[in-house]
């Protein structure tokens, strides 16, 4: 079979996504897909710090919740329009990311993970307990749908779907630009060996912080979109299990690749839809699946495919070095 | 004064339970060099197996605890054999993700078997004990006594027996332990079994004054992480001291600051300490 070239592959995906509302049987499918796209945006963000820079962040759903609550609180309690609140969702999450990152990124490997796990819990508990700000366990109800733009009514599932798709495409494009740039190479150098990166004169702290803030900015933005599309918020959105979900999406697709987390974030929820009979027991299947993936397919589906292709290319034309960075998570022990 | 003493006792109760969970976690950390996220699910599994033995099969509390210890030790050893052993050469990220996989599996499994409801575990120790002007529920006294007994027994095992010493050796320096001929596989399995049994027993001690539910391990395990970071990763005395520090911080925080925010106190403490001392309070240099 002839290999798809990347541009054709991405175009095909985009065409499929654009056609989806005409193929989907009902509004429910559209809503499932929109939510999957929103989580895909957050996952693509998480992939920057965890997949490309090698720092396993466990507070990601907390940052997503911060974005969501920013939109929820500003629109419901302070009369902001959705469009005014959305950029602030990314901004607030990003600013918080600066503070969290400044402290946590001095820590290496699993110390960073434990620290962010605690930060995630602090966020969750604050959302649950700080009732005067967040409405506590009651949650925020009546978040307005995004106000119409050019006659498109976003309370209608199809318009909302295209809106979220637009944000997803934009996010992917931005992420593509980041990882293909010198900055992206710098992040990957840090992932592969931060000692070596430092020896090469890379400012570790500054670059890790930048990756972290960009990453949580995506989470905040995704959270804002979530608030505008689901239009109801409870503390549960900050739960660490959502970070675990996103980690699973990343890993199934292929961590440290652009396509992998996207396919994982879209594919896994659909798999869940088709495995309806499992319902809340899906983790009885997904837990072992995650373990098997880590043991037998550590680079995920896309990562393994890319590696195999790269090897084939290398065999076919030994004089041409493989220029694309390996999507491999070559992290050493502490 | 009485209120103060009451908080001391609350602190000891929490500290004892946390120390038991953190001890297992810190021992396993010495083997894996990675925090085992599934440890919280081991704790939860202990509570559920005891709940099943006590409430459904009608065994008494102590048989329930013994059953929980054995069950969780088995689950723990199986995880080591099936998951962590094949991954021993993999990057740390993969260990952590695999442990999340085990966590998700066990929690979903418990939910599939027993539903998402909260359960109450029966305890025969419901009377109130009076010491001078202090009134104490018997279960709390039991927790303090049993937790400290277990900690002392473990400490004796680790320091006075050859088998215990091999565990400590491996926790301190895996490569060095292998060099002097310690059978890493056997020690790893033994460590996982002990860690599982401790988590299971801690859960059975604490569950009667709390509740049994599938996510009951989340907060406890996160606090155990805080404890072993405070106490120095892999350090046994550190885990005991750290457990008590967090137990007391929480008891006094709940009383003097706010019950609502008591769970935040442990995490805020960690964030604060790691901001000042990235290597933890009692870190021993490497790791």
From TrEMBL, chain A:
Intracellular or extracellular location(s): Cell membrane
UniProt cross-references to InterPro entries, sorted A to Z: ABC_transp_permease, LivM-like
CDD domains, per the entry: TM_PBP1_LivM_like
Domain of life (superkingdom): Bacteria
Keywords: Cell membrane, Membrane, Transmembrane, Transmembrane helix
Transmembrane segments: 29-49, 56-76, 82-103, 110-127, 159-179, 209-228, 248-271, 283-306
Membrane topology reported for the UniProt record: Multi-pass membrane protein
Predominant place of localization: membrane
UniProt-recorded name of the protein: Branched-chain amino acid ABC transporter permease
TrEMBL record, chain B:
Protein name (record): Branched-chain amino acid ABC transporter permease
Keyword line: Amino-acid transport, Cell membrane, Membrane, Transmembrane, Transmembrane helix, Transport
Subcellular location: Cell membrane
Principal location listed in the UniProt entry: membrane
Lineage: Bacteria, Pseudomonadati, Pseudomonadota, Betaproteobacteria, Burkholderiales
Family to which the UniProt record says this protein belongs: Belongs to the binding-protein-dependent transport system permease family. LivHM subfamily.
Transmembrane domains' residue ranges: 12-32, 61-84, 96-116, 136-158, 179-205, 238-258, 264-283
Source organism, top-level taxon: Bacteria
CDD domains on file: TM_PBP1_LivH_like
Membrane topology annotation: Multi-pass membrane protein
Keyword flag Transport: yes
